[in-house]
Design goal:
Oligomer: single chain
CATH topology of the largest domain: FAD/NAD(P)-binding domain
Helix content: 25-40%
Radius of gyration: 22 Å
Distance between the termini: 23 Å
CATH architecture of the largest domain: 3-Layer(bba) Sandwich
Bound molecules: flavin-adenine dinucleotide
Number of strands: 18
Largest sheet: 7 strands, mixed
Strand content: 15-25%
Shape: globular
CATH class of the largest domain: Alpha Beta
CATH superfamily of the largest domain: FAD/NAD(P)-binding domain
Length: 464
C-alpha cells in the first residue's frame, strides 16, 4: 500500500493551495517544505514586535481572485481577513508630488493621449480573443493607442510591478487579463497577519482535511520507474511512496535535479532550458519610531526610456533615482508593528547577476529615494532590514526570481509550461507552470488549474 496518494514538494502559495484543494477532495496528502516555515516567497518573519514580509506584497484581487476562490473551494471563506487599499487608495509619487493615477495623469499629458490611455483601459475590459495578443508585447499594444513618453513610462512601471519584466517584453494578453480583472474586481488589498496569512490558511486547510505537513525536510529525488512516479526520497535517504508527486520547487529544479534529464525527450528539455525567469528584487524593511504616512501603498516612478533603463539595470548600472513599490503593512493591520510604530516596506526590481557587486550602492540609492518620498523617514528610523536576490535564492531557488517563469511573450497562455509533466503522476504547480495573474495570484491560479486536471483524470470520493 502506498504511503500517500499525493506528495507535494514545497510549501509556497502554489504547493499549499493545491494541497488544500486536493486534501479537501479526499486525497491522502503530504506536503514537504525544506525551510522550517511555510510560504516560500510569500512568508514573513518577526523582529522586535514587527511582523515583516520577506518580499514586498500587495494583493491585486484579494477575496475576488484565485485566493478567494480557493478558500471557497475548501469551505474556509473567512480564513483570511482582507483589508482593502482604500481611504486612502494607492498613490503614485512623481516629480515630488503624490498623484492618483491614472486619473490625474490628465494634468500632465495632452488630452488626446489621456483619452487614448483610457480607451486602452476600456478596450482591455472587452477584449475577448486574447490569443492574438499572446505573442505581442504590451509596448506593441500601447503604441496602437499613444506614443506619449510619460504614458509609456507609466505603463512600463505597471508592467514591472505586475510581472517584474519591462513592458516591451511582457505579453500583451497577460497584461490585459491582469489589468481588466483588477479593474473589474476593484479589491486590491492585504491580509491581516501579513502576507504569510495566505499560505498559512492553505496549510491549515491541508491539515483540516487530514493531510500532513513536514517542514525542515528537503526532497532530494523524485523516484520514477517504468515511466511512472513512485514517490520521493528525502535528503536523509528516506523513501516515501505516493501515486502523484506535485512539485512547487520550480521547473528546472524538478526536471534537472530531482528527476534526471534522461527521463525527458530532447524537445521538452530544450524548452525547459530556454525558459526565462522574471528578474529579482531588493527590499528594504523599514521600522519607524512613529507613523510618517497614512498611505497604504505608494509607487514612485520617473519619466524614463524603458528599453535603455532596463538594459542599463541589467548591465549593472544603479539608477540615482530608484523606482520603488512601497506598501505600508501596518496601515492595513496595526498589529504588524508595535503600538505607535510603523512598518514600511520598499522594493525594487534588480538583476540577480551583478547585484552583489553593486549591493551598497543599490541600498544607498534606494534609501535616498525613499527619503525623498518621505522626508520624515530618517528622523524616525529605528532600523531597517534588507533582502537581496541572494536571500531569495536561498529561500526558494528559481534563480532568485520574484515571480517564477516570466510572463513575457511566448511564455504565457498556451505557451506557458504545462502543469502536466511528461511522466505519469508528475505535476508542477506555482509560478513556473500554468495559470495567469500577478505573483501569488498566478501561483494560486496554477494550483486551481492543476487540481482540475488531476481531478478530471482521477475522480476521488468527496471528503465528508
Ligand atoms: C520581493 C517580492 C515582491 C513580491 N510582490 C508581490 C506582490 O506584490 N503581489 C503578489 O501577489 N506577489 C508578489 N510576489 C510574488 C509572490 O510572492 C510569488 O509569485 C509566489 O509567492 C510564488 O509562489 P510559488 O507557489 O511559485 O512558490 P515559491 O514561493 O517559489 O515556493 C516554493 C517552495 O518550495 C520549497 N522547495 C524548493 N525545493 C524544495 C525541496 N527540494 N524540498 C522541499 N521544498 C522545496 C521552497 O523552500 C519554497 O518554500 C513578490 C515576491 C517577491 C520576492
Amino acid at each position: 500500500m502506498l504511503d500517500y496518494d499525493l506528495i507535494i514538494i514545497g510549501g509556497g502559495v502554489g504547493g499549499t493551495a493545491i494541497g488544500a484543494i486536493l486534501a479537501s477532495k479526499g486525497f491522502k496528502t503530504l506536503l514537504i517544505e525544506k525551510n522550517k516555515f511555510i510560504g516560500g516567497r510569500c512568508s514573513s518573519y518577526e523582529k522586535e514586535g514587527f511582523k515583516i514580509d520577506i518580499g514586498v506584497h500587495t494583493f491585486g484581487r484579494t477575496s475576488r481572485g484565485p485566493h478567494g476562490k480557493i478558500l471557497n473551494m475548501i469551505g474556509m471563506e473567512d480564513a483570511i481577513d482582507w483589508v482593502l487599499c482604500r481611504n486612502p487608495g494607492p498613490r503614485w509619487f512623481y516629480q515630488g508630488k503624490f498623484w492618483k493615477f491614472p486619473r490625474e495623469l490628465k494634468e500632465l499629458i495632452p488630452n488626446s493621449d489621456f483619452s487614448s490611455l483610457m480607451k486602452l483601459f476600456r478596450d482591455s475590459m472587452k477584449m475577448k480573443n486574447l490569443e492574438e495578443f499572446e505573442r505581442k508585447s504590451v509596448k506593441d499594444l500601447l503604441s496602437q493607442y499613444t506614443d506619449n513618453n510619460l504614458v509609456h513610462s507609466f505603463v512600463d512601471i505597471i508592467s514591472l510591478l505586475y510581472f517584474v519584466v519591462p513592458y516591451y517584453q511582457t505579453s500583451a494578453s497577460e497584461f490585459v487579463r491582469c489589468l481588466s480583472s483588477l479593474s473589474a474586481d476593484f479589491s486590491m488589498g492585504y491580509p491581516k497577519g501579513g502576507c504569510e496569512a495566505i499560505p498559512l490558511s492553505y496549510a491549515q486547510g491541508i491539515e483540516k482535511f487530514g493531510g500532513n505537513i513536514l517542514t525542515g525536510q528537503s526532497v532530494k529525488k523524485i523516484i520514477v520507474e517504468n515511466e511512472k512516479v513512485q514517490g520521493i526520497e528525502l535528503d536523509n535517504g528516506k523513501f516515501i511512496s505516493s501515486k502523484f508527486v506535485i512539485s512547487n520547487a520550480g521547473i528546472r529544479e524538478t526536471v534537472n535535479i530531482m528527476i534526471d534529464r534522461k527521463f525527458f525527450e530532447g524537445n521538452y528539455l530544450t524548452k525547459v532550458d530556454n525558459l526565462k525567469y522574471s528578474i529579482s528584487a531588493l527590499t528594504l524593511k523599514v521600522a519607524l519610531k512613529k507613523p510618517i504616512t497614512d498611505f497604504k501603498l505608494v509607487t514612485s516612478f520617473s519619466l524614463h526610456e524603458p528599453e535603455a533603463s532596463f538594459n542599463s539595470l541589467i548591465n549593472g548600472k544603479v539608477p540615482e533615482e530608484v523606482s520603488l513599490f512601497i506598501p505600508i503593512p501596518s496601515n492595513y493591520d496595526s498589529n504588524l508593528a508595535p503600538k505607535g510604530k510603523q512598518l514600511l516596506i520598499a522594493g525594487t526590481a534588480v538583476p540577480q547577476e551583478n547585484f552583489e557587486k553593486n549591493r551598497e550602492k543599490w541600498i544607498k540609492n534606494s534609501l535616498k529615494s525613499l527619503e525623498t518620498i518621505f522626508p520624515d523617514l530618517s528622523d524616525n528610523l529605528l532600523w531597517y532590514d534588507v533582502s537581496t536576490p541572494r536571500d531569495l535564492d536561498k529561500l526558494g531557488g528559481k534563480e532568485a526570481s520574484v515571480i517564477g517563469i516570466s510572463q513575457i511573450t511566448k511564455q504565457t497562455g498556451n505557451d506557458r509550461p504545462s502543469p502536466v509533466l511528461p511522466i505519469e503522476g508528475l505535476y508542477l504547480v506555482g509560478g513556473d507552470a500554468g495559470g495567469w495573474g500577478i505573483g501569488t495570484e498566478l501561483a494560486a491560479k496554477s494550483a486551481i488549474e492543476c487540481s482540475e486536471i488531476i481531478l478530471a483524470k482521477y475522480q476521488k470520493r468527496k471528503y465528508s
